[in-house]
Amino acid sequence: MVEIHEWDARDTVALLREPTADDHKYSRGVLGVRTGSQEYPGAAVLGVEAAWRTGLGMVRYLGPDRPADLALQRRPETVTAPGRVQAWLIGSGTDAATRPAAETARLSELLQGEVPVVVDAGALDLVPGASAPLVVTPHRSEHARLRGLLGLDDAEPTSLVERVASARETAAVARITVLLKGAETVVAAPDGWSTVVRAGTGWLATAGTGDVLGGILGAIVAARGAQHDLDAAALAPLAAAAAYVHGHAARSAGPGPITALDVAEAVPAVIATLLAGGDPAR
C-alpha cells in the first residue's frame, strides 16, 4: 500500500525565505536559464518572468537570440552574460528532435555538473546517465517516455496510487526527483519520499503554464541553493513547494479562464501571503 502525504501551506512556507538587510543578489540565488527556441520563444519569456516573480537575486538567460530579445523586452533586469549560478532551468520550449548538436553538448555538461538542474520537456531525453542533482517536471506522456528510456514499464498509470508508485520507481532508478504534473501533482524523491499537491485548478490546462512552473521551481531551487548544499533528495520538497505556489497562483488569477502570464503575475501575492503566515487555500 502506497502511503500518500498531502502537501500544504505550512510545508511550503518552511522552504521560503524572506530577504534580510544583509542580503545581496548572489546570496538570494542566481538561476541560469537555457530554455525556449526560435520556434517556441514564449516558453523562455514565461519561465524568466515566473522566476523573477518568485523572488531571487538574478536570472541569467543564456538561450537563443530571439527568446533572449523577447525576455529582455519583458524583463530588462535579466542578465544575458554567463556567470555563476546556483541552479539551472533547461528544456522548456525546446524539441530534442531539432536541438543543435552544440546545444546538446552544453546541456550534457550541465547535467554532469554539481549545480542542481530543473529539467523540463525537450531536455528529458538527456536525463539517463546524468549525475547532477536533478528534478524533472514531466506531464503524463513525457513521464512514460522517460521511463521507456530508463528501461522501465512505459504504460501510463491512471489512479493516484499508481501514479505515486510509478513516480517513486522512476525517481529511485534514475536517482532524481520527479515532479509528475497533473490535476493531482505527484512529487517523488530517490530515497522513497513522496507527496501529493492538490493546489491547482482545471484552468491550468492551457499553453505555457508548465513553463511558469519551471520558472517558479528554478527560482526556489536557486534561492535555496544559495544557502544550502542540495542533492537530488533535497530537491523534492522544493518541487512540492513550487507546485503549491503555482497552483494557488492559478487559483488567485481566476476565477474563470486564465493565461500562463496571469499565473506568473499572481505568484508574488501568494508568496507574500505564505510569508505573512496566511494560507492561500482559505
If you had to describe this structure to a student in words, what would you say it looks like?
- The protein is of the alpha/beta class and 282 residues long.
- It starts with 8 loop residues before the first helix and ends in a 7-residue tail after the last helix.
- The longest helix is centred in the C-terminal third of the chain and has 19 residues.
- It has an eight-stranded mixed sheet, sandwiched between helices.
Write the layout of secondary structure elements.
Blueprint: H1 9-13, E1 30-34, H2 42-54, E2 58-61, H3 65-74, E3 87-90, H4 101-111, E4 117-119, E5 134-136, H5 140-149, H6 160-174, E6 177-180, E7 185-188, E8 194-197, H7 209-225, H8 235-253, H9 260-275
Parallel strand pairs: 1-2, 1-3, 3-4, 4-5, 5-6
Antiparallel strand pairs: 6-7, 7-8
Helix pairs in contact: 2-3, 2-7, 2-9, 7-8, 7-9, 8-9
